[in-house]
Amino acid sequence: MTAEIFIYYKVEATLADDAAIAATWLLDEVERRTGVRGSLMRRVDDPLTWMEEYRAVGDPVSLLRAVEKALQASELLSLLQGTRHIETFVLHRPAVSA
Question: Mean pLDDT over residues 23-46, rounded?
Answer without folding.
Answer: 98
